[in-house]
Amino acid sequence: MTPQFAPVELEKAYRLINHGATALVSAHHAGVDNVMSASWVCGLDFKPAKLTVVIDKIARTRELIEQSGYFVIQVPTVAQLQMTYDLGTRTLRNDPDKLQHCGAELFRMEGHGDLPFVAGCSAWLACKLIPEPHNQQAHDLFIGEIVGAWADTRVFSNGHWHFEDADPSLRSLHYIAGGQFYATGEALNANTDLG
Amino acid sequence: MTPQFAPVELEKAYRLINHGATALVSAHHAGVDNVMSASWVCGLDFKPAKLTVVIDKIARTRELIEQSGYFVIQVPTVAQLQMTYDLGTRTLRNDPDKLQHCGAELFRMEGHGDLPFVAGCSAWLACKLIPEPHNQQAHDLFIGEIVGAWADTRVFSNGHWHFEDADPSLRSLHYIAGGQFYATGEALNANTDLG
């Protein structure tokens, strides 16, 4: 499902989420894998590379992150629209076969233990939780240090996305509410010469 | 420049930034206005509505926020591509006419004092700083409670964006790095019937 991907330098990993794409959050603990979708994922720092993700107390994935100290943020594609929506509405708490029902297929990455990665995404960021009890309790806000990053080379290489050269089904998703998404659109370039 | 805009319910204000658009952050204190662009703006809560924004210690706008306790997050359009880039690279510290040089025109909103709003954007979120000294110092992370929200009715109404019905120049921007942006693209809808 993910035929070609390559590592991304950690200092450039923020670029994988900088366009504000809807993300999938996955984690594993004690034999349990789970994946949920999350709109509120955001860059936090370049070096060391960090990001934030907001995860409600109701989420089973949150427990797996708190227990294991690790999670993966991944960028799903237009081809994964329905899966992304379903992963955000179904819960492992009352649907033990949630991943199968949503069509999410997992794989492991060498050197990252049992951390579950979702196949078919365009980018993956393996994160180590930086525990911040106040933020987690008061704001449902989790901070992760990015310890590994990879991208599908058909849409991201040399530190930049190049959706415009690839199949539109590989573009990212941007969620609004109620099942409404937008795909990443037209490439635009600002004049970088301050003159 | 902004002929038609209407208030947005605070509980739905997160939808104005949920698609991960690049934002402009503005603030005012003691006669000084400033505006900067920021990619790292993210929803945090629905009710009361809150958001996060990452602002480097070097930014003059950060001082204005810390001094006044208020700021505005706004969503610039494709028509404002160059202005958005320039507002992120020029600084008021060595360019006192930064706003004029970038082509940013400000207006005030009734009931919101001297808070500066950037004309021509598609959405505006007036925010009250929730002071969190640890997050601000350690992570450059600021939390705001959204106390007012408005959107251009040509692209947002009834709680949803409808870029597909409007001029493409009103779409949002999604920044990557080095002057590279993407516009918001195709509208997509997931099947919301869990079946």
Automatic annotation (TrEMBL), chains A, B:
Give a yes or no for keyword Flavoprotein in this entry.
yes
Q: Which residues form a coiled coil?
A: none
Keywords associated with the record: Flavoprotein
| SMART domains for this protein | Flavin_Reduct (SM00903)
Any GO molecular function: FMN binding
Tell me where on the tree of life, at the top rank, the source sits.
Bacteria
Record keyword Flavoprotein present: yes
Q: Describe the location of the Flavin reductase like domain by residue ranges.
A: 15-167
Cofactor(s) required, per the database record: FMN
Q: Give the similarity note.
A: Belongs to the flavoredoxin family.
This protein is called: Flavin reductase family protein
**Source organism:** Rahnella contaminans
